[in-house]
Design brief:
Structural class: mainly alpha
Distance between the termini: 41 Å
Strand content: under 5%
Helix content: 55-70%
Shape: elongated
Radius of gyration: 19 Å
Number of strands: 0
Number of helices: 4
Oligomer: single chain
Order of helices and strands: HHHH
Length: 87
């Protein structure tokens, strides 16, 4: 496990450098990995399998399956203009 290997590095300078390199790889490969997942889900939908069935197979909610299939952004919840803070 790459993260466990990072934790095992005693020297904090080396640990930080290695973590930075790993983060760069993650940033560079994330779109490609996401594309592979999306294509796999689209292939499963063509079988045809329901969103719920695919979600059960992958261990994710069926609405997330649809979001991945269609490429909908899911970068967290957005507050509506009518929501107010209680603080």
């Amino acid at each position: 496990d790459a993260v466990a290997a990072l934790h095992a590095i005693d020297d904090p300078i080396e640990r930080a450098r290695e973590a930075g390199e790993l983060l760069q790889v993650i940033r560079e490969t994330t779109p490609e990995v996401a594309s592979v997942r999306q294509a796999a889900i689209q292939e499963l939908r063509s079988k045809p399998l329901s969103y719920r069935a695919i979600g059960d197979l992958l261990g994710i909610h069926f609405t997330r399956v649809k979001q991945i299939e269609t490429g909908d952004p899911t970068r967290g919840w957005k507050k509506s203009a009518t929501d107010s803070d209680s603080s």
